[in-house]
Protein 1
Amino acid sequence: QVQLVESGGGLVQAGGSLRLSCAASGRTFGSYSMGWFRQAPGKEREFVATISWSGGNTYYADSVKGRFTISRDNAKNTVYLQMNSLQPKDTAVYYCAAPNTPLRFGINLRYDYWGQGTQVTVSS
């Protein structure tokens, strides 16, 4: 059974930084792309970033491009989201997600497994 556990959220002032982590278990981590999503109060969940199984390819939502960096350590079964220059509009619950299909990457990838989320709050 695939399990995803996020950590690293918190309260930060505008302009600050946070690094989120997502620890995965239950299967061969290095064979699957991973993604980060977020959901702000009263809004639908939105895509943030994705990284291929090897880490060689990444893709970002326009709203975070240049400020956020997704990375992974396959030896630690962990994916990260480094968030810099945070703004109040980045306030949301952040989720990591994993697909059920190995060795596939793309912005339209279907995600079948989700973590419980970690809250990020950016104060102005």
Note: DSSP finds no helices and eleven strands in the chain.
Protein 2
Amino acid sequence: QVQLVESGGGLVQPGGSLRLSCASSASTFNDYAIGWFRQAPGKKREAVACINSYRGTTLYADSVKGRFTASRDNAKNTAYLHMNGLQPEDTAVYSCAATYYGCYDGFADVEFSDWGQGTQVTVFS
């Protein structure tokens, strides 16, 4: 298991940017792919982005492609989600999660074993 702690959510105006962080103290953090998910009120949890472990290859949902970037700093046991061009429809609770099995096309929350607590992102005008 790998425990994850998120930070970086907040309030932002449309067009603004935020960076979410997902940190772990686990020595095995670097063995895990990290996924980012979001859930808006009354909606199902949506896969947003995923970054593989050592090679750092990434996958994105079409809704965020070109605006969001997933990255990781394995030396700091931390993954990041850089969000640019935020819009009101991006408002949600964002969570990071870990999977030992890597990111693949169509990745889904059921594939991830360990989850952060979630952080609120609100985009308002």
Note: The CA atoms of residues 38 and 109 lie 10 Å apart.
Protein 3
Amino acid sequence: VQLQASGGGLVQAGGSLRLSCSASGFSLDYHCIGWFRQAPGKDREGVSFISSSGGTTHYSDSVKGRFTISRDNAGNTVYLLMNNLKPEDTAIYFCAAKFGDGIYYYLDEYSYWGQGTLVTVSS
């Protein structure tokens, strides 16, 4: 059972990246997926969440209007499209999965975690 986050990189402010979260060993179908990030010296924070059906999404205030979360259950992948990136978005981004049909906001609720992908936004 493994989650794999990918798609990070170095981008200039105002640029875009698309992160992917793929699963092996289990299906993401019945899982809420959360994207979290951790900047140097800071706590891990929730960025965006999507319910198992994809019908409900949530964004933190800091990324609302710039980031879009989506999922492809057939492809067992969840995406985070990040537009208009800012230097303060620089962090390691993690995806996590929690079984259930609700939407979950807290780190402790998540059972499976990917290893993280680094996003660096230069000014």
Note: The longest strand covers residues 91-99.
